[in-house]
Design brief:
Length: 200
């Protein structure tokens, strides 16, 4: 399997008439985890979207080697299906090797008969992690992955991220919460001074 790489050079992002950030460089190799921090609305999700290729940069480039696994507040599971069936739909597409193990690891094995729409916020987040683990992507881009999780599940997720990186993966995490992960880097986004063009 090819080693993952995630590199952003001189990256700028504009949303509406606001330049959120500019001149940003990120270079992540196998084993690297990066915590994106900063106040609400500063551009953490926007940066993750650029890194994922879901949005086009205003300036600069993103180079990506390896498939991206994404977590945000949407579980991407059919709300009308029982959780087990909703997960199985993706397992077939993802070619999951050990779905039962991942279901147990995220502690949702007792919820497989419950329709996804009845799951709590934290239960839905756990289910989203089952799907992420099933996919074996080398690059994880996680937007507030600890939101809604209890303390025990948060420790589980921190462990999963650490294991993913020790195994040669890359992970970028936007989070307002501290992350207990050995060796994790930190990028604090702060307010970008408006360009003359913006102020005009
Ligand atoms: N599609 C869009 N069009 C215009 N502005 C947008 C769009 N999406 C986001 N924004 C704006 O871009 C700014 C950055 O949003 P973003 O979601 O990246 O921030 P964030 O740092 O992730 O915030 P939070 O900590 O609240 O999750 C915000 O002011 C937001 O309103």
């Amino acid at each position: 399997m090819q080693a993952p790489r995630l590199k952003a050079s001189d990256l700028a992002c504009r949303r509406g008439d606001r330049l959120l950030f500019a001149g940003l460089d990120i270079d992540l190799a196998p084993g690297n985890a990066l915590h994106l921090a900063g106040p609400n609305g500063i551009g953490k999700t926007s940066l993750l979207r650029l890194l994922a290729g879901l949005a086009r940069p205003y300036a600069g480039t993103v180079e990506r080697e390896g498939e991206v696994g994404w977590i945000d507040e949407h579980a991407a599971l059919d709300p009308d299906l029982p959780l087990g069936q909703a997960l199985r739909f993706w397992e077939r597409l993802d070619g999951s090797a050990a779905p039962e193990r991942n279901v147990r690891a995220m502690g949702v094995d007792h919820l497989l008969d419950v329709p996804v729409r009845f799951l709590s916020t934290g239960q839905r987040k756990r289910a989203a992690f089952v799907r992420l683990l099933n996919r074996h992507c080398r690059i994880w881009l996680l937007d507030e992955p600890l939101n809604g999780l209890d303390a025990h599940a948060a420790v589980t997720v921190e462990g999963l991220i650490a294991t993913h990186c020790v195994g040669g993966g890359i992970c970028v995490i936007a989070s307002h919460q501290p992350l207990a992960i050995d060796g994790i880097g930190r990028l604090e986004l702060d307010a970008h001074s408006p360009s003359p063009e913006e102020g005009a």
